[in-house]
Amino acid sequence: MPESLPGTQAREPGMQALDAAAAAALAGAQSLAVLTLDVDHFKAYQDSAGADASSAVLRQLAALLKAALPPATPLVHLGGDEFFAVLPGADIVAAQAQGESLREAVAAGLSGVASQPPLTITLGVAANPADHNWNARALLSLADARMTFAKKRLTPHHNLCWAGTLPSDWYTRLDIDPQRWPSL
């Protein structure tokens, strides 16, 4: 698998972009949202189709995501089939709408890939709370936890975009006060 895909940032530069966006949002009292996503059923596809076909799908996915995101939106390839996008100025409602748009674009765009079950994405959404007591890593962790929760606990376990609440024990593991973080 390629370490960096065209149109994406690698992990470390992507984390630096997230930190910079968080600092700017805090300084300007602006909204900031993060979308995390991974490809549903990718491991099974990779095992059956092989490394070359899997790499081609990831390149296609990166192109689909970049085309569906607002211009200049940082898209970070964490590795494998995991990505996140940073949405400066977006609140939770706008971020979830963007996530749904991405989910639909990817489902349509990857529909031609010979895979059973079909390749789709599941996303987690998080936006900063109104106060100044938050950081970029907490925002990313919450979005990732929401994505994981959707894949493990919500039916049908794939092709979802989740910005809702989590069970209370999930917040404890993240050291996040659920009353402070916006959700739908």
Provide structural commentary.
The chain is α+β, with helices and mostly antiparallel strands and 184 residues long. It has one domain (11-174): Reverse transcriptase/Diguanylate cyclase domain (Alpha-Beta Plaits, 2-Layer Sandwich). The protein is 47% helix and 17% strand. The protein has 6 helices and 5 strands, in the order αβααββαβαβα. It has helices at 11-28, 42-49, 51-68, 92-109, 136-153, 168-174; strands at 32-40, 75-79, 82-88, 120-127, 161-162. It has a 5-stranded mixed beta sheet with strand order 2-3-1-4-5. Helix 5 links the parallel strand 4 and strand 5. Helix 2 (42-49) crosses helix 3 (51-68). The longest helix has 18 residues, at 11-28. The protein is globular. The termini are far apart. The mean pLDDT is 93.
SSE topology sketch:
Elements: H1 11-28, E1 32-40, H2 42-49, H3 51-68, E2 75-79, E3 82-88, H4 92-109, E4 120-127, H5 136-153, E5 161-162, H6 168-174
Helix pairs in contact: 2-3, 3-4
**Portion in helices:** 40-55%
Instruction: Give start-end ranges of low-pLDDT stretches.
Output: none
Give the quaternary arrangement of the chains: single chain
User: Element order, helices and strands?
Assistant: HEHHEEHEHEH
CATH A-level architecture: 2-Layer Sandwich
Q: Quickly count the domains.
A: 1
CATH superfamily: Reverse transcriptase/Diguanylate cyclase domain
Report Rg.
16 Å
Distance between the termini: 36 Å
How many DSSP-defined strands? 5
Structural class of the helices, strands and pairings?
alpha+beta
Shape estimate: globular
Number of helices: 6
Percent of sequence in beta strands: 15-25%
Main sheet makeup: 5 strands, mixed
